[in-house]
Amino acid sequence: MLNITGEALIGAASVRGTGEAFRAFSPVSGEDLQPEFHTVGLAEIASAATLAQAAFDSYRETDKDSRARFLETIAEQILELGDELIQRAMAESGLPRARLEGERGRTVGQLKLFAETLREGSWLDARLDTALPERAIPRPDIRMRMIALGPVAVFGASNFPLAFSVAGGDTASALAAGCPVVVKAHPAHPGTSELVGRAIQKAVALCGLHEGVFSLLTGIGNGLGADLVRHPAIQAVGFTGSRQGGLALMAIAAARPQPIPVYAEMSSINPVFLLPQALASRGEVIASGFAASLTLGVGQFCTNPGLILGIKGKDFERFAEQAAQALAAAQPGTMLTPGISAAYQRGVDGLARHPKVKTLKQRAAATASCQAAPALFITEASDFLAEHALSDEVFGPSSLLVACKDVAEMRQVAEKLEGQLTATLQMDDADTEMALGLLPVLERKVGRILVNGFPTGVEVSTAMVHGGPFPATSDSKSTSVGTAAIFRFLRPVSYQNMSQALLPAALKDGNPLQIWRRKDGQLGRA
Amino acid sequence: MLNITGEALIGAASVRGTGEAFRAFSPVSGEDLQPEFHTVGLAEIASAATLAQAAFDSYRETDKDSRARFLETIAEQILELGDELIQRAMAESGLPRARLEGERGRTVGQLKLFAETLREGSWLDARLDTALPERAIPRPDIRMRMIALGPVAVFGASNFPLAFSVAGGDTASALAAGCPVVVKAHPAHPGTSELVGRAIQKAVALCGLHEGVFSLLTGIGNGLGADLVRHPAIQAVGFTGSRQGGLALMAIAAARPQPIPVYAEMSSINPVFLLPQALASRGEVIASGFAASLTLGVGQFCTNPGLILGIKGKDFERFAEQAAQALAAAQPGTMLTPGISAAYQRGVDGLARHPKVKTLKQRAAATASCQAAPALFITEASDFLAEHALSDEVFGPSSLLVACKDVAEMRQVAEKLEGQLTATLQMDDADTEMALGLLPVLERKVGRILVNGFPTGVEVSTAMVHGGPFPATSDSKSTSVGTAAIFRFLRPVSYQNMSQALLPAALKDGNPLQIWRRKDGQLGRA
Fold first, then answer.
1. Which UniProt keywords apply (chains A, B) (predicted)?
2. Does the first or last residue of chain B, that is N or C, have fewer Cβ atoms within 10 Å of its Cβ?
């Protein structure tokens, strides 16, 4: 572990915080890991934020090819870390090698996808309205493009120590937009964070960018994140984590003298609707697919299928048994942190004790501090509708089946749900009519609707929406995965009657960047 | 005034509120106008919001051509109101006939522009990622489109009783997006509001839409608006008005169990930078253009030039004299309401009494309750930088000149400004270097940068941004004027592995709507 020093990275410098010390904890061995990290204070937060502000004007005007090259350089530098990164991430998260290697691939892949997106250029949303000097009230020449919002604070998530952390989707999309980034490292994987942070720091230097483009702050406790969001230089926040954490950041951001947007991805129970024909024709296949999705990564996915709706009857009863059997066969897994594991046990025990809930598969007693086994419960739709607490997220491999009398009641449950990241329909062609009846409700409730799949596994692509109405996220108009994530960190500016010498390249006559532009309302690339 | 009954419009019904009665006030005659209006209560708010919710699923899925036709029908129905609308608006606002006829043209024009935008279809942001079944981890078919957010509450502004009111930009863009609208009529022009509301109500019926697509609530006091924003059916808010009003709505929206976005356009002093060569070569022309812009509509524009920065010296002194002279020649005008007029007098008197401010042109003593004459003041940049109150908006024809020692100090003042709707550069070619130095600061501070024009006069077009960083607006990523305003009321939804029978038309194979779509990252219309 030669490269991990326990320092925060403030621009080009490595700085040891003077606040509370902490170490990473291995959920596998149950031991603290070396080295010691230190919580940074207001001075370091101010340095990072002020450097980010100083970097902003030059960084946001780097041309799109240079910025694309920077993202690719970060990807290269992450790969350069080699196996040390994987080993450290395994030790800190308890996640297996194959998963973390896959996640590294995803992280590198999304950096490259944003590089491609940058080069393509339509994210600039360039618009040109030509002057109409002869009109009764003459129209001036007006042009518009997107510019970066400003320095962004990113809060790494614990459950994806690479893909949703220091160089994850929030950082990649903010850097792509032209925003300097200050990351608050998740204290569950500080060593992994430092390694990736140093890779970004090196990429900044290799690309000759202002050092303030990236900083990494270390620490435990809520004060650091709160102070970071309060800093006047920070102009937006990206967060993936708990509802409580997201709500706290939203409140802090709204109370600033200048309120700023918070993109918080918080909680979701990802309902799966088992439609009758599909259940009749392939209930067992669905049950085993469901069990695999539920236990993937020990249930520690934002898109974990935590709620399964079916219509009462033999087929649903058989599905419940088969799902319980499939889960009984699943091995217990190591959860990310003692805190997550304890919260999971509490959530599951709460359901097990609930008078209106029947246990189908009990979690096994924990054999080690972070071990967790899947759990499955069932309740009646009428009870689910009456008891709001039954729709609380239990983060981990636990799911609740809801038995509905009929499709009308299924729709009623859907209508009662809070906002979700996803909803899934398991359906056959003969279920189409019923699916068409549910669709309008689901569209209002979620960011992504899946058919005959399971919600875990979020593709990083052009059409992906990893978002959804509150409380799935704080802003349903955004996605934190996929190329559209860049729009969270951009805003439009109009230029009226401006000379070629002053206009940004994206808007100059002759389209020197060769990007898609909207001229007098018509898209074109001429 | 046959058509004005003083009722609120709840869906297809006309309803008399049971709360506090009020009448429109004519700032010209100083008299109350007939008929009496009544403030609606919680029951009417709930009816309107619940009807809007009931209308939502059918309205948001009307095809884009039907929705375009609906907007055009609203425009036709507004024109059908004939001169009664203009006369009533003149009586209620004190604005002259030509201005209101122009504003009616603008209102009708923006409805038609949104109809065109709808038909063109790229607002749907349709995206298709084809399945990659052979990939190591197979990729499913994923498609994305924009859907409407939900019922929108619109708060009409007093200063544009047509273009920013009942059928103004917020309503037009929300209806275009597929959102039902509940308007809170501005109590300064309730009769104008009712006439336009009835035109929309008629268009809803003519187009065979659900009656809940539009309602109009009447009332005085802050309770009505607050209760409307609190109603759970409301999913977004459009507001143009004071900073205090906007901040209050933002706080209410953030405190809801489900927070919702507020698009508030609040305050702006629209700095104009007089660069030295332009001032030397055509100071007098600029001074008369400035005076015309400042006094347009008695200064009651959000984009009124309230702050003029120049570099100390003979040219700037001469400009100050010429501007004061041009303003001395301007006739006093009738302001919209006694409240606005009183606030203007207070603001101007505050500047006149300020120890660091010199009066260049004093407001004349008021001859009638709503009469206001322009005022002009000057201060030193160092004083402006030290006294935050000097950058407060004085709504009306008052402006403050700021004398800077040099361009560095001019840039320092720009850097210190809060977010603005606009910034203007008066410059000659020889000023280009200096303008390039100011541009990065201005881009960070404003939504629109103008060269050699004046900020009043906001074109309704594709490339317009009428927005800007806080406190100009509550969301710098949005515009309330121009076709991009539609995006305030849309959010993306992904459809994964969905059959042709279930997919919305925008995403079906073969592109049946013939719209621009992004397929595997590439824009096309095939």
1. Oxidoreductase
2. C
Percent of residues in chain A assigned helix, strand, coil, to nearest 5:
45, 20, 35
Measured in angstroms, the CA of A494 and the nearest CA of chain B are apart by 4
Are residues A136 and A233 part of one domain?
A: yes
With respect to residue B73, please indicate whether it lies within any of the assigned structural domains. yes
CA-to-CA distance for B53 and B234, rounded, in angstroms?
8
Cα-only R_g, chain B: 24
Average pLDDT, chain B: 96
Q: Enumerate the residues of chain B whose CB falls inside 8 A of the CB of residue A498.
A: 449, 451
Average pLDDT on B268-282 reads 97
> Could you give the ipTM of this predicted complex?
0.97
A415 is catalytic: no
**Which of B7-11, B136-140, B499-503 shows the lowest mean pLDDT across its residues?**
B136-140
B14-62: pLDDT as tens digits:
999 999 999 999 999 999 999 999 999 999 999 999 999 999 999 999 9
> Quick one: tokens of A112?
């490259």
Into how many domains does chain A fold? 2
Residue B17 in domain? no
Angle between helices A190-206 and A83-93 (to 10 degrees): 150
CA A151 to chain centroid: 19
B277 and B245 inside one domain: no
Which residues 147-206 in chain B show a CB within 8 A of chain A? 147, 149-150
Q: B30 near B368, Cβ under 8 Å? A: yes
By the 8 A CB rule, do A156 and A168 touch?
yes
Distance from CA of B241 to the nearest CA of A (A): 18
pLDDT of residue A1: 45
For helices B276-295 and B314-328, angle between their N-to-C axes, nearest 10 degrees: 20
In B, residues 332-391, which contact A (CB 8 Å cutoff)?
Answer: none
Given B265, B393, B409, B418, the catalytic residue: B265
Please enumerate in sequence order all residues whose Cβ is within 8 A of that of A390, keeping only pairs 6 or more positions apart, or say none.
A351, A354, A356, A357, A379, A383, A384, A400
Least confident span in A36-50, A360-374, B193-207, B235-249: A360-374
Clarify whether residues A333 and A206 are in a common domain.
no
pLDDT band with cut points at 50, 70 and 90 for residue A526: confident
What are the beta bridge partners of residue B491?
Answer: B147
| pLDDT higher than threshold 60 for residue B1 | no
* B202 lies in some domain: yes
Residue-wise pLDDT tens digits, A161-205: 999 999 999 999 999 999 999 999 999 999 999 999 999 999 999
- Whole-number Å distance between alpha carbons of A193 and A40: 15
Domain that holds residue A166: 8-23+42-266+478-487
* Euclidean distance between CA atoms B418 and B491, whole angstroms: 29
Cα–Cα distances in angstroms (integers) from residue A144 to residues A66, A496, B177, in the given order: 22, 9, 21
For residue A366, what pLDDT is reported?
Answer: 66
The one-letter amino acid at A295: T
Residue B96 lies in a domain: yes
Q: What is the CATH classification number for the domain harbouring B301?
A: 3.40.309.10
- Rounded (to 5) percent helix, strand, coil in chain B: 45, 20, 35
pLDDT value, residue A254: 96
Interval B107-136 mean pLDDT: 97
Average pLDDT over residues B310-322: 98
Q: Would you call A430 an interface residue with chain B, using a CB distance cutoff of 8 Å?
A: no
Report pLDDT digits (tens) over B49-78: 999 999 999 999 999 999 999 999 999 999
Considering the domain architecture, whether residues A277 and A351 belong to the same structural domain is answered as: yes
The helix-helix angle for B223-230 and B243-255 (nearest 10°) equals 30
What gap in Å lies between CA B491 and CA A468, rounded to an integer?
9
Please indicate whether residue B302 is annotated as part of the active site: yes
Count other Cβ atoms within 10 Å, centred on residue B353: 9
